[in-house]
Amino acid sequence: MKKIIIQGGEELSGTIKISGAKNSAVALIPAAILSDDEVTIYNVPNISDRDALIEIIELLEGKVTLDQDALKLDMKNIKNKVIPEELSKKLRASYYFMGALLGKYNKVEMYFPGGCNIGARPINLHLKGFEMLGAKVTYDCDKYIIEADELKGARIYLDFASVGATINLMLAAVKAKGTTVISNAAREAEIVNIATFLNNMGAKITGAGTSEIKIVGVEKLGKAIIEVIPDRIEAGTYIIMGALLGKDLKIDGVIKEHVEALLSKLSDIGVKYEIKNNVITINKCESMNPINIKTLVFPGFPTDLGQPMSVLLTQTNGTSLFEETIWENRMGHIKYLNKMGAKIIVNGSHAVIIGPTKLQGKDVVATDLRAGAAMVIAGLIAEGETRISEIKHILRGYEDIIEKLQNVGAKIEIKEI
Ligand code: EPZ
Q1: 246 DSSP β-pair partners
Q2: Which has fewest Cβ within 10 Å: 32, 179, 359, 373?
């Protein structure tokens, strides 16, 4: 079994280049289907999620060429087909093919898996939105058939500012007859990236990034290019490492507005950093104040940085509170932190973190993507050797994480054990 092996305690110094955002790329690739021509997506991260989505595009007879980080997708001969479970179950984001194929063909037939480690991950808001656009949803087991004689613009209120539902409904509405308004829309940066891509194809979307998005349906979508925005969660993960071990550690590719909540919390903790031209320089903070973290929808503190941040809180001088409000199960990493010597008491989605505690290297498990990132951070600051198993979770969301950390001085490698 492949494991990540870390010898902790090394200073991190040098520059880490941030890759394209996973949570943007996994929506941009399915969105390409809506074009009747060729589109190119630049700065696509080299992660397994990318390859899984390309497999589905090729199943639909789209032509794909990958040149470094530039993904060219020729949609001239694409066809609507049933997406089998063995492909759709590889990643949650395959659900974007629902919105894209429905938006293009008024019909989509695909298997879609249920939950995963961090929660039930329902898609009721997506399906309700499709129905409000005039589609009929039928399913048996995990196979969904969503079809409409004609998609008509509608005003859709989201009970929860869901990122996935916001994007999926944009995809379904771009060619609907008339105007769609999504209210209580999610405001995450990735949504703006997708809306820009669609507008570059000829769509008429305004308000992306605010909680009210307007989409005026158009007949046809054509050629377009787009660049994937830098990954704010990858950047935040490395910024947290810099606060713990940095020596003039530079993180290149940070859009300040995308990481404002994190930077504000780090300032409260006493972390010093400077940010210039999308490069942040950060140093280890010798004495950190305890704080409270509550994850919220954007622009609140991002849920995907809650687990990485909880590791930093084990090093603050006092008791911190960490509350996860987005997912029902994002505490899978806590038992491994406690095994390493942390003092954390969990009650549902609340954790009381008593610091500072000295962490010892241990055998630990990555229970999900961001829990895995938390294990890497814990291993980097622990005394001795940490061995992380189930590393596929980590590698699917952090491009070249081993090389990026080795290049700034971390003693980290992947070994077959
Ligand atoms: C996206 O997931 C991200 N994934 C998640 O990142 C991220 O945690 C999440 O947004 C919140 O920011 C991708 O973009 C691929 P949601 P998504 O719809 O769209 C409930 C990572 O680590 N909900 O905003 O699935 C849901 O159960 C991943 O990179 C419904 O109830 O998130 C959850 O409690 C993890 N019904 C909450 O909303 C629905 O129809 C947030 O979901 C949809 C969602």
Answers
A1: 12
A2: 179
Atom of ligand 1 nearest to the CA of 397: 29
In this structure, the dihedral spanned by the alpha carbons of residues 237, 238, 243 and 245, taken in order and rounded to 10 degrees, is: 120
Can you give the pLDDT at residue 280? 98
Strands ordered across the beta sheet of 292-294: 292-294, 319-323, 350-354, 343-347
Query: Taking the model in full, what pTM does it have?
Result: 0.97
Residue 122 pLDDT: 87
Q: How far apart are the first and last CA of the chain?
A: 5
> Taking CA 21 as the corner, what is the angle to CA 187 and CA 325, rounded to the nearest 5 degrees?
45
pLDDT in tens, 89-128: 888 899 999 999 999 999 999 988 655 667 777 899 999 9
Strand partners, 274: 281
Distance 382 CA to ligand 1 centre (A): 31
pLDDT of residue 115: 54
Q: Ligand 1: does its nearest atom lie under 6 Å from the Cβ of 368?
A: no
* Number of structural domains found in the chain: 2
269 and 313, same domain (yes or no): yes
pLDDT category, 140, cuts 50, 70, 90? Answer: confident
Active site residue 141: no
Mean pLDDT of the chain: 96
Separation between Cα atoms, residue 38 and residue 54, nearest integer Å: 15
Place of tokens 């814990």: 378
Whole-angstrom Cα distance, residue 260 to residue 4? 30
Cα of 119 to ligand 1 centre, how many Å? 9
pLDDT surpasses 60 at 12: yes
CATH of the domain at 291: 3.65.10.10
On whether both 246 and 185 belong to a single domain, the answer is no
